[in-house]
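Need tokens for this chain, all 103 residues.
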Amino acid sequence: MESDDPKHYKDKDIETWDAIHSQVSDEEFIGYLKGSAAKHLFRFGSKGGLTIEKAIMDTKKSIKYLSKLLNFLEWHRKQGNRVQEEKPKPSNVRNLFKDKDNE
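Here are the structure tokens for all 103 residues:
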């Protein structure tokens, strides 16, 4: 896929996601990639004005993160690794913010 990244992303020695991955667990990295892909879809065409060009750029960025995630997961599968969370997480983010009175 042709890169639409601005020049300031091209003039670096390490990809940002590789720097992030070096500081977090594999599970956290998966969350980062999923969240970044979702972010670009959620803001679809709204950053810098709603134009077809911006919508295409956000879609390409989302695909870029999803491709990185897919390659990461396929690499783990090939290695025979299992990627799983160490402890169960709430099934819904709203569960994180329950009032003590409503538990």
